[in-house]
């Protein structure tokens, strides 16, 4: 009688004679289920690693001179002026979100900080070094600001915007933003000093501890408060983007 080798449950058994019908397994996990789960996890890990390695090749290609980071079918082909501006951004800043660093840039990119950002120079967040995390109001301070009136919030913004812009050397470029806040504040018929005086001293003291260390864009973030209203918030966002573009043009001129 021929000797038959049989693979069963990771063991090699020698089967002699007719095969015996195995008894059905009772209430235990089927043998292949764990194997399928392991294969699925391994396959997912392998696919993730393959995707990461492929992205490394893409990132190296993006670093070549003249490479348009938006090329690849996801965005429309830029016209000549747009391509020139994109190359200028790459020359002065590592990403679009870095324009205006350190006072006007967007928040630091968490993916770049961890060592890899797939968006590269097209990323909308800052890829430049920040000595410390952007200063922002804590939960208690945000609650205090929420209880203030619209004129009081605008008065706080005016108190800090001008000095920061003057100290950082972009007072002229920031004129539109400051004037926008001034016009909105004037609609309420208050003087800035009067509005600030109405804020409880204890509240203003606690807010000042953080506001004194905030960036220009952080102070503008006060416009996101509910009492400010949507139209003015949208105007502030648009004005801030124009300010970033003006700051970029100023930096570009200095490098020529």
- Strand-pairing-aware structural class: mainly alpha
Q: Can you give the mean pLDDT? A: 74
Sum up the overall morphology in one term.
elongated
Distance linking N and C termini: 92 Å
Number of strands: 2
Radius of gyration: 30 Å
Placed side by side, the strands forming the largest sheet appear as 1-2
Flag low-confidence runs: 33-38, 56-87
User: In sequence order, what are the helices and strands, one letter per element?
Assistant: EEHHHHHHHHHH
Major pleated sheet:
2 strands, antiparallel
Helix content: 40-55%
Number of helices: 10
Task: Summarize the structure in short.
The chain is mainly α and about 260 residues long. It has helices spanning about 30-60, 80-90, 110-115, 140-145, 150-170, 175-185, 190-195, 200-210, 215-220, 230-255, and strands spanning about 5-10, 10-15.
């Amino acid at each position: 009688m021929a000797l038959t080798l049989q693979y069963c449950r990771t063991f090699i058994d020698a089967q002699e004679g007719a095969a015996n019908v195995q008894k059905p397994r009772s209430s235990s996990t089927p043998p292949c289920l764990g194997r399928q789960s392991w294969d699925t996890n391994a396959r997912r890990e392998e696919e993730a690693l393959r995707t990461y390695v492929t992205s490394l090749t893409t990132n190296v290609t993006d670093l070549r001179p003249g490479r348009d980071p938006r090329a690849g079918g996801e965005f429309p082909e830029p016209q000549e002026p747009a391509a020139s501006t994109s190359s200028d951004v790459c020359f002065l800043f590592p990403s679009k979100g870095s324009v205006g660093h350190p006072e006007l840039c967007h928040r630091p990119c968490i993916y770049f900080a961890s060592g890899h950002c797939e968006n590269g120079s097209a990323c909308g967040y800052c890829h430049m070094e920040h000595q410390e995390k952007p200063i922002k109001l804590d939960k208690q301070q945000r609650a205090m600001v929420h209880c203030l009136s619209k004129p009081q919030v605008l008065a706080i913004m005016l108190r800090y915007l001008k000095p920061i812009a003057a100290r950082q050397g972009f007072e002229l470029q920031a004129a539109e933003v400051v004037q926008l806040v001034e016009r909105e504040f004037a609609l309420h018929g208050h003087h800035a000093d009067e509005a600030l005086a109405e804020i409880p001293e204890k509240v203003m003291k606690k807010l000042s501890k953080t506001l004194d260390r905030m960036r220009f864009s952080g102070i503008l973030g006060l416009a996101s408060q509910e009492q400010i209203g949507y139209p003015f918030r949208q105007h502030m966002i648009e004005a801030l983007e124009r300010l970033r573009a003006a700051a970029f043009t100023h930096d570009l001129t200095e490098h020529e």
